[in-house]
Amino acid sequence: MKKHKELVSFLKSKGLRMTPSKEKLVQFFLYNQARHIPIKEIQDQLISTLPDVDRTTIYRNIEKFISLGLIQELDLPKKGKVYQFVFDKKVQHYYICKSCGKMNKGNEDLFKKIEKALKDIHDFSKANLSVLFYGFCSKCENTFENEANL
C-alpha cells in the first residue's frame, strides 16, 4: 500500500521510531479514514492485535499523531472525543449543534476567505485549517426561541 509507506516515511522523517503499536495505529487509521473513531474502539482494536500494548502507549501515540497533523481530535456532543484521519486532506472543518449533535462539514470557500484574512491581517500563510464551530442549528435555535417566548 503506497499511502502506508508514505506515511511511515513521513513519521520516520519526524524522528519517530516505528514500533508495532505505531504501525498498527497507522494501519487502523488508514483503513478507517472516513470515520470518526472513539478511543475505546481504537484501544480495543490495538489490544486485540497487540495484547501487551498498554493504554498509556496508545494515548501517547495518538497525541503524537495529533501534533504531527496525522489525525485530529473532535469533541462531539453526545459522543465525546473521537479521532479522524486528516493527513492528506486539505480541509477538515465542522460546525456542530450543541443541542442535537448534528455535524456538518464546513464549506471550503468560507475557509479560503479565512485563510486570506489570516494572510492579510496577521501575515500568516499556508494555514492547515482544522476548525470546529459549536453553536445551534436553525431547528434547535427556533425551538429555544419558541420555548423562551412561552
- DSSP strand content: 15-25%
CATH architecture of the largest domain: Orthogonal Bundle
Mean pLDDT score: 85
Q: Structural class from helices and strands?
A: alpha+beta
Q: Could you tell me the radius of gyration in angstroms?
A: 19 Å
Order of strands in the sheet with most strands: 1-3-2
Overall number of structural domains: 2
Question: How many strand elements?
Answer: 6
* Number of helical segments with 4 or more residues: 6
Largest sheet: 3 strands, antiparallel
Q: Give me the CATH superfamily of the largest domain.
A: Winged helix-like DNA-binding domain superfamily/Winged helix DNA-binding domain
> What is the top-level CATH class of the largest domain?
Mainly Alpha
CATH topology heading of the largest domain: Arc Repressor Mutant, subunit A
Quick one: overall form?
A: flat
Task: Walk me through what this model shows.
The chain is an alpha+beta fold. Helices cover 49% and strands 19% of the residues. The protein has two domains: 1-88, Arc Repressor Mutant, subunit A (Orthogonal Bundle); 90-150, Dna Ligase, domain 1 (2-Layer Sandwich). 11% of the residues are buried. The model has no long low-confidence stretch (mean pLDDT 85).
List the helices and strands and how they pair.
Layout: H1 2-13, H2 20-31, E1 37-38, H3 39-49, H4 55-67, E2 71-76, E3 80-85, E4 92-97, E5 103-105, H5 108-122, E6 130-135, H6 138-148
Helix pairs in contact: 1-2, 2-3
